[in-house]
Write a structure and sequence with these properties.
49% strand; 4-stranded antiparallel beta sheet; mainly beta; single chain; 137 residues; 5-stranded antiparallel beta sheet; 2 domains; globular
């Protein structure tokens, strides 16, 4: 059975599937390109009741800090806190009909090990059924 590693990069580096490093082709050679950015973490979770992660990458858990307030805890620490964050949320009932309209996902605090966000509509915080966040550095 063949190895799951890329074993012959120009610089001799080997990578496991799922590594966050970007490998690019330069002519006939493959190399690590540190100037390319990648998704460092993402999560989709249910923010109502007992918070539950639906799917994720590099996220170990979500902490419920109160209505509309969450901490996303990273499995592996990021290089620094200078990452970009994008988020979306939706509050639907069992018939997938939107209940309250548009919700905003905003950053409260960024560290290398966690991201605190809030979910609101206008100035009111909400627990939404679907919250998705992506972190890129």
């Amino acid at each position: 059975m063949a190895s799951s590693k890329i074993s012959e990069l120009t610089d001799g580096t080997q990578f496991e599937p799922g590594d966050e490093t970007i490998v690019v082709r330069s002519g006939a050679n493959w190399k690590v390109d540190p100037t390319k950015n990648a998704v460092n973490a993402w999560v989709s979770f249910n923010g109502t009741g007992t918070v539950a992660i639906l799917a994720s990458y590099n996220v170990t858990s979500i902490t419920d800090n109160g209505t509309g307030l969450y901490t996303i805890n990273f499995t592996n620490a990021l290089t620094d806190a200078n990452y970009a964050v994008a988020g979306a949320s939706n509050n639907v009932n069992s018939m997938t009909v939107q209940v309250h309209g548009t919700y905003n996902v905003a950053v409260d605090t960024k560290t290398t090990t966690a991201l605190k966000i809030n979910v609101s509509q206008s100035t009111t915080l909400y627990d939404c059924v679907f919250v998705s966040v992506i972190i890129v550095r």
